[in-house]
Structure formats: structure tokens, C-alpha cells
């Protein structure tokens, strides 16, 4: 999140103060994790409050000497062009997601994918449906909320293990969360690493596509004996068009903001053609989508400002110098990037916040050891999604368990795709899978 001009402004790089400089990050994780453990709920403590407390500590221990200069430095970090671009994309993505949901596009996408499934391929079909839906709508929680009730009914009608069916939905939801052009994790990973979304998508598919295909085959073998008796639903094909437009334009390399504007326009045209939906209601839904991004935007600003104070005081240089003692080349650098994202995600239970928290550090490590931006972005996103999929206190598993009438522990043993994704990510690092430099 820093450019060359700001990197020259580093008067405070005394590594002996390294632990003091990094203490705001430690304070954040300590407040969030300890309070969550004491409350028995990782969503009792708002992430924004933990960042405010950590930022207050950063003001207390970091330089410059004058408080007004610290505020200015904090604001420089929060207002960096990469951060502001990320926020504009969050706003547009929120508007598109809620606008499309309001006109019934999510339901239409679910109906379309389920109606095309062969009756004797129920389990792999549900996994594939979850992959396609999440890739289209860009949210794992949204995919689980839309598909899990249907999947629970399919499990009951076919005799399939409910935990296995729920695991197929959750696994597929993270496939799209990891790859979608409108996913907040993709936005955060690409903006913090400074690469194009299409380049990150190509690098990511090299890692996760083998995992997805192998699990699809596994589900086909495991699910051959299951067949649903639920009736098919009629699909409104016109409502699927906004998602198809976004998907095709993004893959073709169009600027993501242009893609989202086109998607919003497509949902507006669809709304005008539907007598039951008024443009005012559609606009209201988009407004709720934008305000729903409020906490994520605030957290992004607070994290960026705090990390700028840490960077300015030599904290990132301290981390990189100490990590360098263990890093022996590109492979161990990539492993360090993945582990940082995974550990941050364990502490925050939010993969986007985890990426924002360590993205700047990962970018510096990647630059030093020759890891191209698309590669570091894909490793950040993949590692955070792997952890988020498997933590029982994460929003995705909590939602899945609630909608399926199970406990998170019933689902975790059946999360085959996240397990396969972890294996493929490790193989990609140690085998040395290459990706092209983003140009």
C-alpha cells in the first residue's frame, strides 16, 4: 500500500524498537481474540472497535513526536490511492449484490444450476452449483444462505448424509469466494498486492482448479447412489443475465469498476421489466448493499492508517528483516505469505480483514524475494479462504450449520474441497508452480 515516494520518508527504522512499533498489531489481535474467547462468540467484539483501540495505542507509541503529525501520517495511510480504489469497488460490489438479490437474480441462478443437474449426480451437482453461484455473486455467505435450504431438502429427500451435503455447499461457496471478480477477498488481495484481477484469477486457477476437479470426481463417486425426489423450479433466464455479464466482462479483462457499473445497469433494466419490482425499491436495495459495506470500509481505513504508522516507524522493515532470517528464497517467501494470512484469519475470523491486515507486509516480502504480485495475491486469498472455511466460529460455518440444522462439527469432517485446496496450495509452493508476471 506504499509507493516509492512514501518509502523514501522513513526516518525511523531503528529495529531495536521493532517490538514496540509492532505492538499495535499485537494489541489488536489480543483484544479481539481474548474478548471473543471470553464471550464464547467471535462476533461479540466488533472488529472496528478492536482496530480503534489498536490505532489509539499506535498513536501513543509511534512517531512523529507531535500528535497532529501522527494524525496526518495515519490519514495518509488511510487515504492512499490503493485504499480508496478498494473502497469504491466495495461500494459498487455491495450495490450490485443487493440490487441483483432484490430482483430475484440469486434465486434464478440457484434454479438454473439445480435444474441442469442430472438426477443421479446430486452430490457433485450441488457442489458444482455452489461453485457457479459463488463465482457469480462473489460471496460465500450469500451462496450458503441461498443454496443451503435447498441442499438440506435434497439431502432429506435422497437419504444423503446431511453433513456431506452441507460440506459440498460450503466448499463450493469458497471456490467462488476465492476466485470471483466481485468477491471482497479478491478486491482486497489484488489492491494490496498491486495486480490486475485477471492476472490473479489466472494464478489462482492454477492452484485451486485441480482441487475443485478432484473433489468433483470424488463427489461423483460418493454420490452415485443418491437421487432427489424434489420437483424442479421454473427458471427466469433473463434474471441470470446480470451475473453472466459481470462474469464474462471480468474474465475478458475489463476494468472492475466498469464491470460493476454494467452489472448494476443490467439489474436496473431487469427491474424495469418486472411489474412486481419498482425502481425505488431496487434503488433502496442497492442503498442497503452500500451501507452493508460500511463496517468493512471503516475497518479497511483504520487498518490502513494504523499500518502506515507502523510502516513509517520501521515496523515492516523489522518484520521483513526477521522473516528474512528464515526465508531462503522464493518458495519460503511464498510459504511465509500464506502462513501470515492464515494466522491473521485465525485471529480475526474474517478473511477480508486478514488480507487487509497483512497485505502490505506480504507485498514487501514478495517484492524482495521475486514473488510476482498475482502470485502473492492468490496465496493471500487462498490461504485465508482455507482457514475461514474450517473455523467453527466463522460466519460461513455458523450460517451453514444453522440453515442445515446441524452443528459446525458435523460439517467440518466433510469439507473436502478446503482440504484439497490446502494440499494443492502447498504443492504449488513446494513444486514451484510458476505464474506469469502481471504486465
List the helices and strands and how they pair.
Elements: H1 4-7, H2 18-39, H3 47-61, H4 67-78, H5 81-102, H6 105-115, H7 122-137, H8 140-158, H9 162-179, H10 184-193, H11 197-222, H12 241-251, H13 256-272, H14 279-292, H15 294-312, H16 315-324, H17 330-348, H18 351-369, H19 373-390, H20 395-404, H21 408-411, H22 416-431
Characterise the protein shown here.
The protein has 439 residues and is mainly α. The longest helix is centred in the middle third of the chain and has 26 residues.
CA radius of gyration: 22 Å
Percent strand: under 5%
Mean pLDDT: 83
Taking the sheet with the most strands, its summary is: none
Provide the succession of SSEs. HHHHHHHHHHHHHHHHHHHHHH
Please identify the structural class as seen in this structure.
mainly alpha
Number of strands: 0
The share of residues in helices is over 70%
Q: What is the subunit organization of this protein? A: single chain
Amino acid at each position: 500500500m506504499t509507493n516509492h515516494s512514501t518509502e523514501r520518508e522513513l526516518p525511523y527504522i531503528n529495529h531495536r524498537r521493532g517490538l514496540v512499533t509492532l505492538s499495535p498489531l499485537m494489541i489488536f489481535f489480543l483484544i479481539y481474540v481474548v474478548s471473543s474467547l471470553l464471550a464464547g462468540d467471535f462476533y461479540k467484539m466488533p472488529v472496528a472497535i478492536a482496530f480503534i483501540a489498536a490505532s489509539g495505542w499506535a498513536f501513543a507509541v509511534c512517531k512523529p513526536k507531535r500528535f497532529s503529525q501522527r494524525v496526518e501520517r495515519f490519514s495518509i495511510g488511510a487515504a492512499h490511492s490503493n485504499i480508496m480504489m478498494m473502497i469504491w469497488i466495495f461500494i459498487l460490489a455491495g450495490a450490485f449484490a443487493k440490487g441483483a438479490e432484490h430482483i430475484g437474480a440469486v434465486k434464478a441462478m440457484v434454479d438454473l444450476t439445480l435444474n441442469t443437474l442430472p438426477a443421479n449426480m446430486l452430490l457433485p451437482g450441488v457442489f458444482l452449483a455452489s461453485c457457479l453461484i459463488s463465482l457469480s455473486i462473489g460471496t460465500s455467505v450469500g451462496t450458503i444462505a441461498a443454496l443451503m435450504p435447498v441442499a438440506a431438502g435434497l439431502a432429506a429427500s435422497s437419504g444423503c448424509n446431511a453433513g456431506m451435503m452441507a460440506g459440498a455447499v460450503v466448499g463450493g461457496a469458497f471456490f467462488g469466494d476465492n476466485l470471483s471478480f466481485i468477491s471482497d477477498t479478491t478486491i482486497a488481495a489484488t489492491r494490496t498486492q498491486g495486480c490486475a484481477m485477471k492476472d490473479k484469477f489466472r494464478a489462482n486457477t492454477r492452484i485451486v482448479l485441480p482441487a475443485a476437479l478432484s473433489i468433483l470426481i470424488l463427489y461423483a463417486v460418493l454420490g452415485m447412489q443418491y437421487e432427489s425426489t424434489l420437483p424442479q423450479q421454473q427458471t427466469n433466464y433473463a434474471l441470470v443475465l446480470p451475473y453472466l455479464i459481470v462474469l464474462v466482462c471480468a474474465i475478458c479483462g475489463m476494468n472492475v469498476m466498469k464491470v460493476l457499473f454494467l452489472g448494476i445497469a443490467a439489474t436496473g433494466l431487469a427491474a424495469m421489466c418486472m411489474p412486481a419490482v419498482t425502481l425505488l425499491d431496487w434503488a433502496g436495495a442497492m442503498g442497503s448493499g452500500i451501507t452493508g459495506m460500511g463496517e468493512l470500509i471503516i475497518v479497511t481505513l483504520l487498518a490502513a492508517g494504523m499500518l502506515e504508522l507502523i510502516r513509517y516507524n520501521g515496523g515492516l522493515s523489522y518484520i521483513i528483516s526477521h522473516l528474512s532470517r528464515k526465508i531462503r528464497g522464493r518458495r519460503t517467501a511464498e510459504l511465509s505469505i500464506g502462513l501470515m494470512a492464515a494466522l491473521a484469519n485465525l485471529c480475526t475470523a474474517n478473511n477480508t480483514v486478514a488480507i487487509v491486515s497483512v497485505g502490505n507486509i506480504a507485498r514487501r516480502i514478495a517484492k524482495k524475494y521475486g514473488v510476482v504480485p498475482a502470485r502473492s495475491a492468490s496465496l493471500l486469498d487462498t490461504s485465508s479462504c482455507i482457514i475461514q472455511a474450517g473455523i467453527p466460529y466463522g460466519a460461513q460455518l455458523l450460517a451453514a450449520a444453522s440453515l442445515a440444522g446441524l452443528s459446525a462439527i458435523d460439517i467440518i469432517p466433510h469439507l473436502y474441497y478446503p482440504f484439497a485446496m490446502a494440499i494443492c496450495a502447498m504443492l504449488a509452493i513446494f513444486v514451484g508452480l510458476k505464474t506469469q508476471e502481471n504486465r
